[in-house]
Amino acid sequence: MTVGTRVSDTSGAATTSSRQESPGGLWDSVKKTAVVIGSGILFLAAFGNSLTWHLQRFWGASGDFWQNLWTKLYVMFEGHHAALFFLGTMLLPTLTHWAVNALLLLVDTTGKPSFITRYRIQMDKNNPVDPVKLRHAIKTVTFNQVFVSGPMVVVVYYLMTLRGDPCGPELPTFHWALMELAFFSIVEEVLFYYSHRLFHHPSLYKHYHKQHHEWTAPIGVVATYAHPLEHMLSNMLPVVLGPVILGSHLTSTSMWYCLALFSTTISHCGYHLPFLPSPEFHDFHHLRFNQCFGVFGILDRLHGTDSKFRQTKQYERHTLLTSLTPLNESIPDTPKKGQ
Q1: H or E stretch including 153?
Q2: d(CA 100, CA 215)
Q3: Which of 36, 59, 81, 196 could form a disulfide with 167 if both were Cys (CB 3.0 to 4.6 A apart)?
């Protein structure tokens, strides 16, 4: 999200992509994408009239508590909504990011607890992580958060005030917040897939995206280890655009930012842990470079950029782990010839 030794891989990827993206083939994929996304929107609309009705009733039981809590915060920051917005969209997501990564870094640097290391995807890598390489990654991530994410959030605030007050006194309903999260996810999938794939073009890769792929076996903190331009266009823009389009409330926006950071951290963490989303898809992207460009894999399936992934053991393991047995034990690699 690699180094010069893998340039030949990216050249091969460019050749493969050029074959895949003939005008007719690309147009067919775009039409399929439109059908899938359109169907998804209709499904979400129907979903909103059934299960979410019951969830809304459950949410209503604690609705007064959350509304009262928000009202106190709203009054406390009356006249200082820009500060409140910045705290909600920068401070809270940043704390979430570093809290999760602090736990992961403890395992990455010490190899303890050994219970966790059993779930490492690439067993021969980062055991322990290279401290020099890690320090450089942390410096880059911190730079991106302060000098790229921070200013972008300020711009987002002023764009959202054109639609109204993003820190309004009334909280969104549970039903609306859920629909917003679904919309944000669709926007992120589309923008991230195409921007990410664009950064894999040889003319851009060597100048920008190569930095992220220095980690062929990623760890959580490198989720936002990227060139500043890539961080702005491919990491931040797909996440911030959804709330801007809908003019979302601060609470929805903040919750979405936290979920997005948590999700990308898990995707890069290098451990397929029980009861957490599978990171096999994006881990395979770091390993092979020219597969698995998206978030959910919808557009990869439509464009055929997961074809090699679907022929691997990693694909068999790409599922929610609901037991304590690591998937590299229950679904072991195929023994190499002569072993």
Answers
A1: helix 150-161
A2: 19
A3: 81
Q: Which two tokens stand for residue 197?
A: 């794939």
76-81 long-range contacts, CB within 8 A, separation 24+: 77/167, 81/165, 81/166, 81/167
Between CA 81 and CA 95 the distance in angstroms is 20
Alpha-carbon span 303 to 296, nearest angstrom = 13
- Spatial neighbors of 225 by CB under 8 A, at least 6 apart, are 1, 137, 140, 141, 144, 211, 212, 215
Q: What is the pLDDT of residue 220?
A: 97
Q: What is the DSSP letter of 236?
A: I
pLDDT of the residue at 46: 55
From the list 221, 232, 233, the residue with the least C-alpha distance to 97 is 221
Tell me which residue has tokens 């439109």: 34
Q: Report cis status (omega within 30 of 0) of the bond before 113.
A: yes
What six digits make up the tokens of 62?
């604690």
| DSSP state at residue 120 | B
Q: Which two tokens stand for residue 260?
A: 């997005």
The amino acid sitting at 304 is G
Half-sphere exposure of 224 (CA within 13 A, CB side): 29
Residue type, 87: L
Residue that has been written with the tokens 């220095």 in this structure: 214
Check: CB of residue 281 under 8 Å from CB of residue 268.
no
Residues 6 or more apart whose CB falls under 8 angstroms from that of 270 comprise: 108, 120, 121, 122, 125, 126, 217, 218, 219, 220, 279, 283
3-state class percentages of the chain: helix first, strand second, coil last, to nearest 5: 70, 0, 30
Compute CA distances 200 → 2, 195, 205, 225, whole Å: 11, 9, 5, 16
Is pTM beyond 0.70? Reply is yes
Q: For 51-102, what is each residue's pLDDT tens digit?
A: 555 555 555 555 578 889 999 999 999 989 999 999 999 999 999 999 999 9
Residues of the chain with pLDDT below 70 are 1-63, 336-339
User: Cα–Cα distance between 322 and 331 in angstroms, integer?
Assistant: 14
pLDDT at 65: 82
